[in-house]
């Protein structure tokens, strides 16, 4: 089999390629150019920075969540999700809009 493959590859190298004239592809297709235009998006509004008092409250809530002892895996998962959200708020420059 290996020998047949090699001879087949060699035989293709020796043959001349045939030029095919390209047909007019765009003549049969009718484009609606309005579909290609992207609507202009409004710029993202910058939210006000998180007040220091709010950051302290988030920090306190995170500390309280860390003190909790979960009773089952579902409660642990919920506490972990809450802590992740609080950490996200504490790291952010402003309160994210969901």
From TrEMBL:
Top-rank taxon, per record: Eukaryota
Ranges for region Disordered: 1-21
Protein's name in the database: Uncharacterized protein
Organism (species): Glycine soja (Wild soybean)
């Amino acid at each position: 089999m290996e020998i047949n493959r090699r001879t087949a590859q060699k035989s293709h190298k020796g043959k001349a390629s045939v030029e095919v004239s390209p047909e007019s592809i765009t003549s049969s297709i009718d484009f609606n150019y309005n579909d290609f235009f992207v609507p202009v998006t409004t710029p993202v509004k910058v939210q006000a920075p998180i007040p220091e008092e709010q950051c302290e409250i988030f920090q306190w809530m995170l500390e309280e969540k860390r003190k909790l002892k979960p009773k089952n895996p579902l409660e642990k998962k919920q506490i972990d999700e809450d802590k992740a959200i609080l950490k996200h708020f504490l790291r952010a420059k402003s309160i994210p809009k969901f």
